[in-house]
Amino acid sequence: MLVRIALIPLPLERDEGTYGYVAWRMSFGEVPYLDVFDHKPPVVFVLYWLAFKLFGISTVSIHLFGALYNVVTVVMSFVLVSRLYDRWTGLIAAAACALMSASPHYFGQSANTELFMMLPLIVAALFVWQALRGAGSFGLAFLGGVAVGFAILTKHSAAPVALFLGVAIILQRGLLERRFSTATYECCGLLAGCALPVLVVTAVFWYLGALDAFYEAVIEYNLSYGGSGKMGAGISLLGKILRRGLSSQILFWGFGVVGIAFIVVRRTFAHWFLLGFLIACALGVWMGLRFYPHYFLQLVPAWSAVFAVGVLDTCRQCRRLFKAPFRIAVYVLVGLVLVVFPLYKDRWLIFRPFTAYTVERATRDIYPGQPFDQSALVAEYLEETLSPVDRVFIVGSEPQMSLLAGRASATRYPYIYPLTQAGEASLRRQQEVFAAIQRETPACIAVVMYPRSLMMEPGASQEFFENVSSLITTSYYLDAFTLDTVRGRVLVEGRTAVFAKSHLVPRRGQVLLFRRRAPGDNFPDIRGKWHFAFVAPEE
After folding, report:
1. Chain mean position to CA 176
2. Most CB contacts within 10 A, which of 64, 81, 321, 444?
């Protein structure tokens, strides 16, 4: 919690904005997937809704809820590793989990699905381990299944852990103990527990008349999205993220490798259980070949445990090499290095409140080439200038702007990534969204001039963007835009002298706000001067 204090004021990124927007619209009776599209399973929406009920709708409330939730994750990490080994190993693993889960190199400061998925994965492993240590328990296996089912409903990449837990039961009960009936008994418990939350969620969406929309978003869309990942691009991104993270986490990854080596040599069942848990989490990260930084948070609990094993086994080797006085000095030195080194390397962010390092600069350093630091500016302007019943449409994938402004999207798609893919499904979504725009006539259309907010795939249809371009040209006028100045980023409004003197040719790194024309309005023709923004390639 102390490590995360400096991270709480950071602005929302687009995934957080999406979950928050869906949760906010749930308060108005709208149904996820049917009325508001997203492709993530529904647990994260419920957690965000709970955060809003507890702390209100704000950036701070989301990050505060995530920080408190992560405290429970760290405590359960200690419990799991203590049961596998001992309390010292558990303490070191929990400390590593706390530091690594907050690392800005893996977007640990954001309240993403991976942050919420870690806890049920740890709980599932703990219940199954407790079942395997006893004579046999359907109940513990069932509870482990419920936990891993909850994790899958948080993010689908938890599925390999469910498979691992079943394999662990079969190996221990069937192959090692030759108790095949107990293995079957506990596997049935695990499967029943895993199926329970899935069946409950399915029944809820069936009752709400949204089962088809749920299946299309969570199953069909994710299969298409995951299948479009390319090995070469994925490996390149993986290398980039690891190189960036190794600058401050080299000891974490290095002692983890040492821990794996000790695990392979020792060959106890606790060691093999932990290794299997780590491999299953790694498979979850690997799914889809899209190695975005926050995906690596799924690895943190398991890798923290092998890190603790590596540290303690290294110290035990030192016990054999050094006499008592030197041994204590080595322990103190290792402890200081493990704690101080990552804090020192990330001091620019962790100790930000005590320095001149601003939130805006930290945001640009963590999220280069992203518009997240502009979200609050745009949202404040929308909130001040639009009626609460007015709707907006964002040509980009920045739903946090709508959320913070308290203005609903004109379509059920709060972001446009589903519209920028190649294929018939994407074209159908484009047609659906443009029909909704024509029907709802949004009071404001925001154009986000960032390629990463569009993510246009090669071969994606341009029909929607041509239609929106034509609509803005004929029915909207440029009312405001963001601009970089020597004093930072500002929003230039249409009634200011700076706006009157500026030219209308936009640049990358801006957000343009177009307002719907009223009858009789006469504004300069801007045809062709900003259309390129829609089709700019990814950088």
Report:
1. 39
2. 81
Q: Which of 348, 381, 414 is the last residue of a domain?
A: 348
Tell me, what amino acid is at 267?
R
Same domain, 283 and 390: no
Q: What confidence category does residue 528 fall into, taking pLDDT thresholds of 50, 70 and 90? A: very low
| Maximum distance among all Cα pairs of the chain, rounded to whole angstroms | 90
Give 371-411 pLDDT, tens digit per residue: 888 888 899 999 999 999 999 999 999 999 999 999 999 99
SS3 of residue 49 by DSSP: helix
By the 10 Å C-beta count (0-12 exposed, 13-18 middle, 19+ buried), 522 is classed as exposed
Q: Distance between CA 144 and CA 141 in Å, rounded?
A: 5
Q: What's the structural domain count of the chain?
A: 2
Lowest-pLDDT choice from 162-171, 280-289, 414-423, 498-507: 498-507
Token pair of 140, please? 């513990």
Check whether residue 261 and residue 407 sit in a common domain: no
Q: Answer yes or no: do 414 and 289 share one domain.
A: no
Per DSSP, helices labelled H in 295-396 are: 300-321, 324-345, 347-350, 359-366, 375-385
**Are 20 and 62 a contacting pair, CB within 8 Å?**
yes
Share of the chain above pLDDT 90, in %: 48
Domain span holding position 259: 5-348
